[in-house]
Amino acid sequence: MSKIEILVICRHEGILQTVVRLINNNPEWHSTGAITDGEAITVFTTMYFKLVLLGSGIEKENEDKLCTTFKAHNPQIIIVEHYGGGSGLLFAEIYQALNGS
Predict the structure, then answer these.
(1) What does the alpha-carbon distance between residue 81 and residue 90 come to, in Å, rounded to a whole number?
(2) Across the beta sheet with 51-54, what order do the strands follow?
(3) Which of 5, 100, 101 is nearest to 51 (CA)?
(4) Residue 16 in contact with residue 54, Cβ under 8 Å?
(5) What are the tens digits of pLDDT across the range 21-50?
(6) What is residue 12's DSSP assignment?
(7) In Å, how far are 4, 62, 68, 71, 98 from 65, measured between CA atoms?
(8) Helix, strand, coil % in the chain, rounded to nearest 5
(9) Closest listed residue to residue 24, CA positions, set 85, 91, 82
(10) What's phi and psi for 84, nearest 5 deg?
(11) Which residues does 89 contact at the CB level (< 8 Å), separation at least 6?
């Protein structure tokens, strides 16, 4: 069974590493992290992701541009905003988004 690919974008290196590690602890998921918009777009266009997780520190204007770019490349992409709250909330947000709720 292949894992669900998740792109995590966050401006804070320590938080990004933590979120990537937490997601990768789930045997059903695999995440790739990006700090800059350029890095995120490059990774997104070279790999298939089912979900993009937008983390802390992304300005609204940049978030809007990223979402537009991602949707243009893959209209079915699921985009979730996550700004903290612990691993339980993180997992709940991902499960809820993947299940279309």
Answers:
(1) 10
(2) 29-34, 4-9, 51-54, 78-81
(3) 5
(4) no
(5) 999 999 999 999 999 999 999 999 999 999
(6) -
(7) 24, 5, 5, 10, 22
(8) 50, 20, 30
(9) 91
(10) 115, -175
(11) 82
Token pair for residue 83? 């700004």
33/85: higher pLDDT: 33
Structure tokens at 75: 């209209």
Please give the residue that has the higher pLDDT: either 1 or 12: 12
Nearest-angstrom CA–CA distance, 89 and 94: 9
Q: Where residue 82 falls among pLDDT bands split at 50, 70, 90?
A: confident
Average pLDDT over residues 5-15: 95
Q: What letter does residue 7 receive in the DSSP assignment?
A: E
